[in-house]
């Protein structure tokens, strides 16, 4: 079987060199050759993988401590083998923490290792994590959170040089790599493809597909051509919508396969909240921000961006949290008359040419975006919508994410995409994470939004270990965030998932995470 990914993976294991689109490809690939204490099932629920069960307050494996920290006990499945036949033990869990906790090694830049005080191993199949504070992520230790590493292969390298540890061939060479997943990498031709083969000793059973090749094809047209020609069987988050639609139309007639959409990202507008930068200054007026929201014809924008797959967004979340938020969010339907009324309440009046004026100042709004296919498509509609209520827009196209200051210090609004995951969402609205000169504009709260009550709610959510409590807190947070118009959600941006007929298993039922749940069960039908 051959799968097309949009970009090359960063490494065979860990989050080394994984960023942007490359991070998505790495995340997808890693569960073929690695295994983790937990994973996400097709409903986006956390489930045990290497662990026998999820830690919880009810079974006593999660304990809240008097000092505000917590103790989380993980029980490993016995009999799990590394690809070289050595059994996995809690010593490998401990070694994963030892390597990941030190920033010098670079192997776990965004994982939990650096926020754990200690990991202890009472027996060969038990590991106890001591957290500095209670956390909503107590029961999750998957690809993005925690990596087991083989002590018997890598301990010497870590002791020899932390600085050189990430350069070990283990992380990038199929000949040196030893993982825990259902497949073993056997070849990696840089810039072209990686091939993996089924691991006979995989603890959940030998994979049903013997060999999988991952092709790295950035060009959307080339991806489409490969799929239509039968040179690939699947693709993930590629090709782009217009090419995926072409495939869907042809295959609808021939019956050769299907094109599904995973609504894993939300496109949104972020108004500027910094008083010394916002222009016009009335962007700080909630009435004006609400007018901007009511003026947008989001359905037309969504349909233009993804014809036939349009889905507008009222918040940035899915699943149980999304359902709870749906009951509390403040919605802003397309209503130009309401937008005009709100602007009039804020003191803006149409001049002789229809343009809004207040105190001699015309309402001009700068719109910034990073160059992407959907951002290019949506701007003419946004421009028309705002012109209809007397707002003239100018556009600034940003070449890429490398100029962090340009993504934060903008006077009007910027369009941005976000993965609909809880960590990504929380980081956009926390006051402590505002991008600034002090943090070299690396703060993820780019638009400078700050609300003490939202900060309190997000901090409480982050420390809550009870899912039902978090859901209620999120519902209240979204009520405040949408009433403040801290963000203007526009639409869910679909990522194509192309699947040739005869392949069963890889369905993107999970709207957020990569659809690689239990890849050893995937099958390819033998042609009749």
How is this structure best described in words?
The chain is α+β, with helices and mostly antiparallel strands. It folds into 2 domains: 2-205 and 495-524, D-Maltodextrin-Binding Protein, domain 2, CATH 3.40.190; 264-493, Dipeptide-binding Protein, Domain 3 (Dipeptide-binding Protein, domain 3, Roll), CATH 3.10.105. The protein has helices spanning 20-33, 90-100, 151-160, 220-228, 241-254, 286-294, 298-305, 319-326, 336-345, 373-387, 404-408, 422-429, 452-463, 467-483; strands at residues 2-5, 38-40, 46-48, 62-64, 70-75, 116-123, 126-131, 183-189, 193-198, 211-216, 234-236, 257-271, 349-350, 356-358, 361-362, 364-370, 392-398, 413-419, 488-500, 503-504, 523-524. Strands 8-9-10-1-11-19-12-18-16-17 form a 10-stranded mixed beta sheet, sandwiched between helices. Helix 6 packs antiparallel against helix 9.
In short:
The protein is α+β, with helices and mostly antiparallel strands. Helix content is 28%, strand content 22%.
Domains counted in the coordinates: how many? 2
Second CATH tier, the architecture of the largest domain: 3-Layer(aba) Sandwich
Give the radius of gyration.
Answer: 25 Å
So what's the oligomer here? single chain
Find the count of extended strands (DSSP E, 2+ residues). Answer: 21
Question: What order do the strands of the largest sheet run in, or round the barrel if closed?
Answer: 8-9-10-1-11-19-12-18-16-17
Top-tier CATH class of the largest domain: Alpha Beta
Number of helices: 14
CATH homology superfamily of the largest domain: Periplasmic binding protein-like II
**Mean pLDDT across every amino acid position:** 90
CATH topology of the largest domain: D-Maltodextrin-Binding Protein, domain 2
Low-confidence stretches: none
Structural class: alpha+beta
Main sheet?
10 strands, mixed
Write down the overall geometry: globular
Portion in helices: 25-40%
